[in-house]
């Protein structure tokens, strides 16, 4: 921030009750205002719409057999998609940080493509590619594997839309990583694998976990990309977002909000858990 | 009478329809004397852009005023939702009676007896559900009972998310009722097997068309007769099969009383819809493979529309309200049939 340096003068900062960095009240105020506007308002709307229904009704809606089946499908697919992203994303971040090669800038830019592309376009494109007569679909068909219109397709769509999360969280950590630690380990006789496992991975671990968790929660709520490739067979390839969509089509806003609240709470718990775990992990790492 | 439409209300309108995923296409760029917003269903885009031209010309001849007609197209349930949430569309032209009914029930935007305000129960044209099969009809699919055969895989939009899919479900139900009479178990088995043969449930009619035509999935596509004929006319390698019994799919239209009052477009809105029943308009509509009421036009297009026994919703399930409750509501017949 380009504030006047007077706030950083020792004479003023040492006064009791004054912070070293000026502008605390203003910046916190603005942040809180935007958080309430962008996050809390929609969430309140969700709660208000759900509040119209009794507890028994709420429970009946969120534990409906078909809805429960969609939780399972969505959770499994999102989990697998984010694990795949964890591995592939780590590799991509590694390649982008550690190596120099022609086209590196282009590849770096391409990583963000899934964010830039409208998800529906991504869904339709992936479906075209993975359908039995599509470019990739034909190859998979030779192996007897069907991707489009099966749960496998859901995983593909989810991985695609949430890959940048892992790359973009791991990349800066790798860039800041001082080579001295690795050099010291190598000079002490550590193998490449040991260096990776004992030096690099512990440092990247919190960022990687955050990336994977973000990728997971993003996948839980994905609609546009998944809906075209899923096939939407009841109990087999229906995702939670579709269940919400169905309730909206029935003009049943309360039920739609009820199902959405389950996703929201699950995502919040997961993200909060990851944050707490990360704080503990970092404390341990630094306290060692 | 000039419509007062501030920049803000216009932006709000466009914003809210964009938010709901609807697309709003502006028919004419230059400022017109009057404006009309038609909120319509997904696959009527081409039909109404031609009709709007026809109407605008006739309206100018009659009143000397130019009119700019805006169209908004999406799934008709979603469209009705947008109107309930404040989109001030002047007229609706939908493919489901229930989506118009909801405008009375939830928002009281139109009177309960809206169906009595225009001829043919406010449905200027109608269609039915038909089959599109691959060239030469390799699986020999002729009628509804072919859809339950083990070797047939079909594509239809999800009845939970699409009126198109609901019509197909009701057509199959009507056929089963005619075939099995009072044997409820046989009817249920038939429907269960038919739904079990579905390869992909897309959320809307156009999605199902894409899956069948572009992705090559399934042996038969079930959708509106109009859509089936349009595909067959525009693409090589398909054949149209119209079953002997099918569902009477109505396309209800009405003006939104609360909107036209505010927008000052009552006269224009009424004329726009009444004009759909004229011979010229009916000919245009029939050209898009929809069945029409006008006798002259009917005779002209006779060979385009094979004889079908069309079952109205009243014969299959009493009323729309009842059918929605019994079959399509959460936990209803459809959910039970799709249970594992």
Report strand % of chain A. Answer: under 5%
Low-confidence runs of chain B? 1-29
At CATH level 3, the topology of chain A is MetI-like fold
The percentage of residues in β strands of chain B lies in 15-25%
How many strands appear in the DSSP assignment of chain A? 0
CATH architectural category of chain A: Orthogonal Bundle
Q: Could you describe the largest sheet of chain B, including whether it forms a barrel? A: 5 strands, mixed
Number of domains of chain A: 1
Which quaternary structure do these chains form? Answer: heterodimer
| Gross geometry of chain B | globular
Question: CATH homologous superfamily name of chain A?
Answer: MetI-like
Low-pLDDT ranges of chain A:
1-14
| H/E element order of chain A | HHHHHHHHHHHHHH
Q: What is the rounded Rg of chain A? A: 23 Å
Helix content of chain B: 40-55%
Radius of gyration of chain B: 20 Å
The dominant shape of chain A is globular
C-alpha end-to-end distance of chain B: 60 Å
Considering the chains and any ligands shown, give keywords for the structure:
heterodimer, A: 288 residues, mainly alpha, MetI-like fold, 14 helices, 77% helix, 0% strand, disordered N terminus, B: 340 residues, alpha/beta, D-Maltodextrin-Binding Protein, domain 2, 2 domains, 5-stranded mixed β-sheet, 16 helices, 15 strands, 46% helix
